[in-house]
Structures are given as C-alpha cells and as structure tokens.
Amino acid sequence: MDTLNQSTIMQGGYGRVTLNLTARALVEHAHSEYNCIFKIGGYDADFRIDGKPYVLDDNSALLIGPWLPHAKLENPKGPMLALTLLLDGAWMASLLGLALPLRARLFPQPAVLLTPEVREQVNRLALSMTAGIEIDDNERECLLRDLVTALANTYSDLEEGQKHFRAERPMDSRVVNAIRIIRMSAAENPNLDDIASRVGLSRSRFFEQFKNCVGASPQQYLDWERMALATRMLSDPRVTVAEVSDKLGFSAPSHFARFFSQHIGLPPSDFKRGLISQGDGGDDAP
C-alpha cells in the first residue's frame, strides 16, 4: 500500500470492511451501524467523537456506537493505514446471540486499549484484505466474525448499553414522520426546512427534537441515507460514477466526489475499484 488512493473493500450482510490508506479529513457524520476503527500502519490520527477528542494509535481502537456523531481530522504529518468496520446491528445481534435495541451502545467507551488477542484478530483480517484470491470471501467473513466476537467479549457492556437506551427519550411521532419523508426522497436531496414545515415544527424545534430522538442531526441522517444510495449504486459494476452523481442530483461529478470522500475517506472511483467482495445484503450498508 504505497499510495493514498489504494483501498480494499468487502461488503456483505455484516455491513462493510475497508482497508484504506489516507490522510483525508472526514466531516462529522453519524450512521445506524457500529463503527470500529483500527490503525494498521502509518501515522496516528486525531478524531472527534460526540464532541470529544481522541487519538487513534498503535495501541488503541475506536468503537463508535450507532448514531454517535464523529469526525476525523486531517493529518498533515501523513496518512494512516486504517482497518474500518461498519457493522450492521442486526448482524451483530445475531452473531453474538444478543437482543440489541437498534440504538443500544454495546461499547460504553468509544476508545479502548487493544489486548494482544484483539490485535492478533485485527492483523489477521487486515492481512486477508490484501491476499487477493488466496483467501475467499467465506474465510474473510470468518475472520471478521472472530474479530467482532473478540471485541464483544473484551469491551462490551450490554447492561450499560441497555441502561443508556432506556434513558433516551421516546421517539416523537413528528420525527418518525420526518424520517419516513427523508427515506422516501433522499435521492432528491430534500430541503430540511420544508420537511420541518410538513411535520408541523419550526426549523429550530425540528432540529432539536430530531437530535434528541435519533442522536444525530437531520442533515447527518439525510447524508447517511444519500451515502447508502451512493454505495449501493456504486457497487453495481454497470453503473458509472457520473450516473450515480446524476441520480443523486449533484450538479457535477466533482461535487459528488467531494461529498462521498468527506464521508468515507476515498473517492467514489476508488470505492468501485477497491471492491473485492459483494456478498448478499452488502449493498444496503452506507
């Protein structure tokens, strides 16, 4: 991995796994999946999770729960080679035999120290991502399951996660209606002020209630839905980047590429080239 543009991506019912070398910044964003990030090589990187600063280095990992806003800062020193897991909550619940609410915080701390066992599992999965045809998709997914199981055994606190979930406010019916509108019209990039009006809330009240109920802002939710559409379409080898840009209403492919890179850390063209596995259900993961 000797350039900033090289990446390897596998997708499936579990979500998405990415091995990527980059110094790019990521805008603050949030999503419904669990996000686990590990440094494989290169320079340390600075992150901001729920407004607090964290450093990802050789001895740590970031375990970010659903809808927890987070951002990666640009690293002027140089790139980091990172292994990133974007894990579907239902897949995790099935793997671990747990009844996880969709917004449960399985990992109470967003930054943890790596144990030797977890580091070994991380390295095995990262190595498999560069092995090409020497390792098939089933073997990679087995390594992923082993890693996620090790993470849960080492760092999870289900009781604390359920306590956090019970302490959250119940979902406002107007927010539920707004989410439905966003999902139905995400490709058209709907105006959030218009959605607030449609559900009977002022703009400020809408943003406040949405954040209280979901944990992320309406803009972050809309961006997540649009990224889900983008990654789904880009996973089809018959669809070009320009076509995806047009279908999502961007005025130029360069604007789409900027949006995509700011959320995932690599351009859409690199995303398409980097896909090594597209299992069942993987096209639903943003």
From TrEMBL:
Where does the record place the HTH araC/xylS-type domain? Answer: 176-274
Q: Does the keyword Transcription regulation apply?
A: yes
Answer whether the UniProt record assigns the keyword Glycoprotein to this protein.
Answer: no
**Domain of life of the organism encoding this protein:** Bacteria
User: Which residue ranges traverse the bilayer?
Assistant: none
A Gene Ontology molecular function term of the record: sequence-specific DNA binding
Recorded hits in PROSITE patterns, A to Z, give: HTH_ARAC_FAMILY_1 (PS00041), HTH_ARAC_FAMILY_2 (PS01124)
Q: Which UniProt keywords apply?
A: Activator, DNA-binding, Transcription, Transcription regulation
- Recorded protein name is HTH araC/xylS-type domain-containing protein
Please report the organism this UniProt entry assigns to the protein: Noviherbaspirillum denitrificans
